[in-house]
Amino acid sequence: MANNEKNLVPMNRRTKEEQRKISSAGGKASGKARRAKKTMREYAELLLSLPVSDQRKWNKLSRLGIPVWSIDNKMAVIAAIVQAAQAGDVQAAKELRSIIGEDAPQTSCGNETAVQKDLMDAIKEAVHAD
User: Fold this and answer.
1) Which residues face 72 on adjacent strands?
2) Inside any domain, residue 4
3) Are both 106 and 58 inside the same structural domain?
């Protein structure tokens, strides 16, 4: 047993007042962490919702056939993931499947859904087309 572990006092050996104080501190720290995560999520959502400011990237998305009103940073990120998956990046393909909700574990018999099979076939075709 490590020396520091000898100094630990289990909660059931502490007084009710000590337990309450520790629980309160934990609750406050948890609330602070949740608020910080929420703020970061809001910042990310704000930046992703902004229009693409780089003209070359905007033109590239436009050439892909993306409607002008849909070109924002979120679309640019998704387009980049799709292009990486088409180029054979397995991690990008997995991330894409996760984003579109097709990363659920397969059934016990190992059957893929038709949509999963179609997606994987499309990725394979794109890789072999190069």
Assistant:
1) 51
2) no
3) yes
pLDDT tens for 1-49 read 456 777 888 888 889 999 999 999 999 999 999 999 999 999 999 999 9
Q: Are residues 61 and 101 in the same domain?
A: yes
64 is in which domain, residue-wise?
52-129
- Say whether both 68 and 41 belong to one domain: no
58 plus 41 within the same structural domain: no
DSSP letter at 101? T
Q: How far is CA 3 from the centre of its chain?
A: 40
Q: Report the half-sphere exposure of 87 (CA within 13 A, side-chain side).
A: 9
Three-class DSSP labels, 54-90 = CHHHHHHHHHCCCCHHHCEHHHHHHHHHHHHHHCCCH
Take residue 42 and report the two structure tokens written for it.
């809001």
How many alpha carbons lie under 13 Å from residue 9 in its C-beta half-sphere? 7
Q: Which single residue is written with the structure tokens 């630990």? A: 8
* Predicted structure pTM score: 0.58
- C-alpha–C-alpha distance, residues 99 and 93, integer Å: 10
Cα–chain center distance at 79: 15
